[in-house]
Amino acid sequence: MSHQFGRLLQLTTYGESHGARIGGILTGMPPGINLDTNLIQEKVNRRKASQNLFSTPRNESDIVVYHSGIYQGKTTGMPIAFSVENKTKKSEDYDNLKDIYRPSHADFTYHQKYKNYDYRGSGRASARETLNWVIGGAIAAHLIPKIQIFPYVSQIGHFSLLENELEDITNAFDYPLHFPNLRKGEEVMTYLSEIQAQKDTLGGAISCIINNLPVGLGEPVFYKLQSALAAAMMGINTAKGFLLENAIQTSQSRGSQVNDEFDEDFKTKTNHSAGILGGISNGMPIGFTVYFKPISSIGKPQNTVTHEGLSTQIEIGGRHDVCAVPRAVAVVQGLTELVLADLWLLDRLHNTKIY
Amino acid sequence: MSHQFGRLLQLTTYGESHGARIGGILTGMPPGINLDTNLIQEKVNRRKASQNLFSTPRNESDIVVYHSGIYQGKTTGMPIAFSVENKTKKSEDYDNLKDIYRPSHADFTYHQKYKNYDYRGSGRASARETLNWVIGGAIAAHLIPKIQIFPYVSQIGHFSLLENELEDITNAFDYPLHFPNLRKGEEVMTYLSEIQAQKDTLGGAISCIINNLPVGLGEPVFYKLQSALAAAMMGINTAKGFLLENAIQTSQSRGSQVNDEFDEDFKTKTNHSAGILGGISNGMPIGFTVYFKPISSIGKPQNTVTHEGLSTQIEIGGRHDVCAVPRAVAVVQGLTELVLADLWLLDRLHNTKIY
Amino acid sequence: MSHQFGRLLQLTTYGESHGARIGGILTGMPPGINLDTNLIQEKVNRRKASQNLFSTPRNESDIVVYHSGIYQGKTTGMPIAFSVENKTKKSEDYDNLKDIYRPSHADFTYHQKYKNYDYRGSGRASARETLNWVIGGAIAAHLIPKIQIFPYVSQIGHFSLLENELEDITNAFDYPLHFPNLRKGEEVMTYLSEIQAQKDTLGGAISCIINNLPVGLGEPVFYKLQSALAAAMMGINTAKGFLLENAIQTSQSRGSQVNDEFDEDFKTKTNHSAGILGGISNGMPIGFTVYFKPISSIGKPQNTVTHEGLSTQIEIGGRHDVCAVPRAVAVVQGLTELVLADLWLLDRLHNTKIY
Amino acid sequence: MSHQFGRLLQLTTYGESHGARIGGILTGMPPGINLDTNLIQEKVNRRKASQNLFSTPRNESDIVVYHSGIYQGKTTGMPIAFSVENKTKKSEDYDNLKDIYRPSHADFTYHQKYKNYDYRGSGRASARETLNWVIGGAIAAHLIPKIQIFPYVSQIGHFSLLENELEDITNAFDYPLHFPNLRKGEEVMTYLSEIQAQKDTLGGAISCIINNLPVGLGEPVFYKLQSALAAAMMGINTAKGFLLENAIQTSQSRGSQVNDEFDEDFKTKTNHSAGILGGISNGMPIGFTVYFKPISSIGKPQNTVTHEGLSTQIEIGGRHDVCAVPRAVAVVQGLTELVLADLWLLDRLHNTKIY
C-alpha cells in the first residue's frame, strides 16, 4: 500500500534502479480519452540527464512502452500499464559499497528495515523511481487539460530568484537548469562547475504556480489540497520542506493583513490564501515551493562505518548528479498532475445524480 | 475516504461544529493494551480553550465517551468508537453569515462544492474536528509509549524563539501559550492583548521534536515518514507550510557540509537529515516546524460579497481565538502520534514469519 | 480495514452486543439528498425480534440516532454518523460461559485470535452488528430509489417454497416469518414451536429478487457484482452458501441451453444469466439465494471443553432465536442496498468529463 | 480499485486478451523469502490449454517474467512485478463480432458501460486475466507453505462425483480433466467429445479442500474467511455459486444435528462448520464448491442483435474451450492462495508488540 499513489486515480509502481524494468499501473482513468503519447514522452525527456542540467552521465533513452488500457489511441477505462527498460545499469560501480553505509543515504535505513537490501543503485530508494511518477502524471494530465502547471527552479545553493527576477516561468523547461533567469543562470552554472570539480553536490528549491484551477478541488479533513500536494512533494528524493506561497510571511501577519476580500466575480483582490480555502481550491492561482537538500553521494572522502559498525572511509564513484533539482522539475510537474487529476475525479462524486 | 486517516491504524471521524456530537472510530489497535483514559482526557484538555491561551470563550467540557472496543480496561482488537458532546453551540451567532462569504474562510469553497453547506460554525471545516485527532492520537500513543513527542509554540506573529532561547520544551504545555520562554512569552501575551483589542488575529508556528524513535519507521516511495507527517500537519486548519528541521539552510548547502557521518553505534555525528533517511527513521531525533496563517474570522469590518455576488460588509462576531496556534500544539501531538503508531504497525509486517 | 464495507460509499461500524452503543459512519453519500428517516426506522424495525418471528425475547427499541452529516433534512456530503443504544443487555446471562467454548460458536476462534475476548454476547461476532448494516443500507438506498429489492424467506429447515408456491414476494415483510406462502407458513410455525420446545434451532435460506436495475453496475475483475453480493451475504452470521438463481442447474447444462438471446430492445428472452454478464448488470432481474446453518446456541445439553481443554457439559440459556432466518431478511436487504449504491457511485466515474 | 485484490498482500493486475502483455504487481510480500520460480511456472502450466483438458487450441507458452522485487532469489519486500507475453493472439478471428453482441457474453455490458470497448477477445473480461491470479497466488503461497490446498473438478455437466467416488484429490492435477476418478473421467471425456462435435459447451463445478490451516485466519465483520473466499471464487469467469461444504444440507438441519463438539485438543468431533467459526478458521479442514455455467461462446448458430439493436444470427468461431472448468482448477488454487496469504498477514497484526 506504500507503492500506490492516489485514491481514485491510482498509480501503483515497481522497479529498482538496477532491475530489468521499472514501471507502473495507472487505474481509474475514465474511458474514451485520446492519449497524446508524444507529449507523454516529451515530459519524460525533460527529466532525463543532460550536461545542460549538470546531471549524471548515465544516459538512458527512457522510451515509455504501454502494455494495456489503450485501444485505437484512446483510454478504455481499464488499467494502463507502462514500463521503461533499465538499459545502462552498471552494477559493478557499486561493488565497493556492498558492506558500507553511505553517509546520509537510504542504504542504512533500508538495510536495517528489510535486512537483504539490494545495495546497487539504492533499489526502490533510487530517484529512478520518479520516472514512473512523470509518466503517471503525464497520462493523468489528460483528465485536466485546462489546468496550467508551471514548475521551475527557484533556488540552487545560495542563488535564489526574487519575484522581480523571474523571467518566463511558463517556459522554464527552455532555460538552462530550468532556472528562469538567463543571466543569473549562467552564474549558477559557473558555480556548479566549481562544485563538480570539488566532487561535491548542491541543494536547492523548486517553485510551482498552478493557474486556471476550477473551484472545488480538495476534499475535507484528511485529503485537503495542501495535504495532498505536501505529501506528494515531500516524497521526492531529498525533499525537506514544503511551503505554500508566502507561508512564513503570512504566519508573521495579522488576519486583517492577509485576509483576501472577495470581488463580485468571486475572485479575490489579493491571494494570500495561495488559492486554497479550507483545503479546497478557490479558483485563484496556487503557488508553492519545495526545498531539497544536496544529494548525499559525493566523491569527496567521507568517514563512515561498515555494516558491522567498523569505522572506514568512502569515496563514492558511480554516476551522480551534481544538483538533482533541475531534473526534479519534471517530477514536481508529474506529481502535481497526479494530485489534481485525482482530486478532480473525487470532486465528480459530489455531483452524482441518484438513480 | 477523505474522512479517514492512516493505513493500518485508521481513524474515521465525523461531526460538525454545531451538530449533536463529534467523534470517531479507531480501527487497527491490537488487542490487550491497557488504555489510560485519564491520560487521554488530559491530552484532550490541553487543546481546550482558556484565557491563558487567548482562545475562544466557547467553553466546552469535552469529556470523551467510549462506545466500544475496550473491555476490562484493555483494547479488544475491535474498533474503538468515541465521541464528545457539542454542548455550547450557539448557532444564532452565525445567523448574519447565512448569505455572506467570509473573506479567506472555507464557507465559499464548501458552498461551491457541496451547494447546501451548513454555514453555522464551518461544519466539517471547523477546528472542532481537531478534537477527534487529539483523541485518536492519544489512544494510538499507547502503541508506542517509548517515543517522546515534544511540540511547542516556536513563533507567534513576529515573535519567534531562537534555539538558545528555548527553555524546557519537554514541558511546553506548562508554559503560557505553550511558548517555552517565560519572559518572551509575557511580551507575546501583551501583544496578543493589543491584537485582541483591535479585533484582529495572529499567525504563528509550532515546532516539534521527536526523540527515541526506533530505526525503521516510514515506508518506501509513497508513505515516507516525512510525507506522512507533512500531509498530517498541512491538514490542520490554517497550516501553510511544513519544514523538516533546517530545511531551508540545508537546501542552500553543499553535500559535504550537511552529510551526517555514522559513528560505530550507527548514530550520526550530526543530524542534518533530521532523523530521516530515504523516508525511514534512522533513530536520530526528528524535528519539524509547521507554519499557520492567522485565523480569518476577525471582528474588524471587512468588504466581501453575498452568495449572489453582491458587495457587502461584514464584522464577524461569534467566539473565535485571537491566535489558534497555542491550542494547535495538542493537535500536532495527536497527529504525530497517529502517524508514528500507524508506521509502527506497518513496519511490523516486514518481520512477518511464514507459516 | 475489516470493519469497513464498500469502496466509495463506505460504512465503518463499531460496537459489541454488550457495550453501550453500536453504530457506524457512512461516508461518500453525495450532498443534497432528502433522507426519509421514518423509512430508515421502519427498515430497522423489520429486523427486530418478535414472537411472530420466533426470535429472541430480547426486546430492543432500537431507535436510530444521527450525529452528523444531515442538515435541514438533507445529506450534506459529510460523514453520516448514527448509533443505537444497547438497552437490554443482560450480561449476567453469560456468566456461566466465561470459561467454556460453546460448540460451533465464534467464542473459540475469537479467544484464540485476540486472547482477551469479551465473552458476553459474542462481542463483534454478535448478530446485533447486523443492525448497523440495515441502517447503513437504508441510508444508501436513497441513492438508488428506482431499484427494487425483494428478499424473502424461501426455506426454513426442510420446508422450502417452489416457484409456483410463492405468493407476493414484493410484500414478504407482511408475511409471518417473511415466508411468502400463508398456508405453508402456518405449518412452519407449528414446526418451529416444536423445535423451540425441544430447545433446538433451525437453519434456512433467504432468496432475493432485484428488479429495475440499470445496465452497468459492477466493476471488472475484482469487484464484479456477483463477487460483491456474495462477499456481503456470506458475511451474515451463520451464512454458508450463496447461489445466483439456478446456479446448480446451469452448471449441469450446455451453453446452447442456457445462453440468453437478445431482443431488439437489448432485453434477453431468457434470464439464465441472472441479470449479470461479465460481472456487470445487464438490466435484467437478479436473483440469488443465501443458505444459513442453524444458530449454534441451543438449550439442549452439549459436550464441550473449557478454555483449558477440559471436557465439560453446557446448556446455553440467554435469549436466542429459534431460527434467525426471518430476521435476516432485513439484513439481506440492507447489504444489497449498500452493494448496489456503492456500485452505482463507482459507475458514475466512467462517465467523468475532463476539465 | 477494482483491479486490485487483497488488503495487505495486494495484487494489482492489467492486460487484455489481445494486448502485448498481461501482468501484475504484487505488493506486501515480506522480505527474505526464497522464491521457487520453477514451482510458480509449474502452477502456471497447469492452467494452460491442452487437448487433455478439451480446451482452446490457442497454445500460449506463458513464460512468467519478473521485473522487480527479487534479489539473489529472495523477495526484497518491494513490489514484485511480473508479466507474460500474449504471443498467439489472432484478432482477425473476432472481426465478425465487431458490431454484434454475443448472447450471454460480457461484450454487451462492457460496451454499454465503457462505450469504446475492445471487442477482440473480451478485453479485461477474458479468462486470460486469470493467468495473473495464478501467478500472484503462486508467489503468495510462499508465505503459507504449510497450508495444503487441494482443488479438483467435482462435476462436469451432469456427471458429478459422490464422496465415495473420489480417488486421490491431493493429486487432482494428474487426472485427465483434473477429475479425480479415472473410470468416470473417461465417460466424461467421451461426452465432451460429443459436445465438442455439436459445437456446444458444458458447465461444471470445482471443489476444494484446505488442510492444515492455523487457527485464526479471517477478520471479523467484513473480511470473514468465507466472504473473502466467496468474493474471490465468484469473480472467476462464469462462476455462479459458492457453497461451503454441506451448506444446503446444513441449512435444512437442526442446531443439535450440526453443532460440532470440541475435543480436549480443541479439534472438533465433526466438521459441519466446514472449518470456519465466526468468519475465522478453527483449524479444521475447509471445504467449498464453486459452480460454473457453460462458456457462452458456442459454434452453434444463435439469434442475437447488433450494437444498433437489429436482429441477426451469429456462429462464434475463434478458439474456445468446450468446458472451462478443468483449466479453472489452477485458478481456484491461485485465488485460495492469495486469500489465505493475505489473511495470514492480517492476523500477524493482532500479535503486534508495542514499542
Number of domains of chain A: 1
Query: Greatest contact pair?
Result: C-D, 108 and 109 residues
Radius of gyration of chain A: 21 Å
Within CATH, the superfamily of chain A carries the name Chorismate synthase AroC
Mass-distribution shape of chain A: globular
Provide the structure class of chain A.
alpha+beta
- Main sheet: strands, sense, barrel of chain A: 5 strands, antiparallel
Mean pLDDT across all residues of chain A, rounded?
93
What is the CATH C-level name of chain A?
Alpha Beta
- Proportion of residues in extended strands of chain A: 15-25%
Low-confidence stretches of chain A: none
Could you estimate the helical fraction of the residues of chain A in percent?
A: 10-25%
Q: Termini distance of chain A?
A: 33 Å
SSE layout:
Four copies of one chain form a homotetramer.
Chain A: E1 4-5, E2 10-14, E3 21-27, H1 37-45, E4 65-66, E5 70-71, E6 74-75, E7 80-85, E8 100-101, H2 107-114, H3 130-140, E9 148-156, E10 159-160, H4 182-197, E11 204-211, H5 225-234, E12 239-244, H6 247-251, H7 255-258, E13 276-277, E14 280-281, E15 286-292, E16 302-306, E17 311-314, H8 325-348
Helix pairs in contact in A: 1-3, 3-8, 5-8
